[in-house]
Amino acid sequence: MADTDPAELERRIERTRAELARTVDAIADRVSPKQVARRTAAKAETGAREFLASVTEKVSDAVGGASRRAAPVEEPEGLWAEERPSLAPLLMGVGAALAVTAMVVLWRRRR
């Protein structure tokens, strides 16, 4: 009898419509160009961050592990009283700038 009850059938139909509407909205959201672009940009940003982290690590290993060179003759004595400044922050900044520039160029080409 529950299958033939009109009120129960209407409730089932409304429930099915609501589920179908949510499914259609989820599909539309997934294939929306704006959402696809956001996901792609997020993936590219994550990849760039990982790349930058690995480059930073390699540069800091190379700079930190390099032997110190003798100071040039024209440097005043005592200029580097304790130790020469590390080039790692400068190189990391240059690497970050290059990575951001490359991302912008690639992003503009795809548009």
Describe the fold and architecture.
With 111 residues, the protein is an all-alpha fold. It has two domains: 1-31; 37-62 and 86-111. Helix content is 74%, strand content 0%. α2 (33-65) packs antiparallel against α3 (88-110). The longest helix is centred in the middle third of the chain and has 33 residues, at 33-65. The N and C termini lie far apart (60 Å).
Short description:
The chain has helices at residues 6-31, 33-65, 88-110. With 111 residues, the protein is mainly alpha-helical.
Q: What is the N-to-C order of secondary-structure elements (H for helix, E for strand)?
A: HHH
Give the proportion of residues in helices.
over 70%
Radius of gyration: 30 Å
Oligomeric state of shown chains: single chain
Net shape: rod-shaped
Question: Quick check: average pLDDT?
Answer: 80
| Total beta strands | 0
Q: Can you tell me the number of structural domains?
A: 2
Instruction: Please give the largest β-sheet.
Output: none
Distance between the termini: 60 Å
Count helical runs.
3
Low-confidence stretches: none
Features of the shown structure:
111 residues; single chain; 3 helices; mainly alpha; 2 domains
Itemize the secondary structure elements and their pairings:
Elements: H1 6-31, H2 33-65, H3 88-110
Helix pairs in contact: 2-3
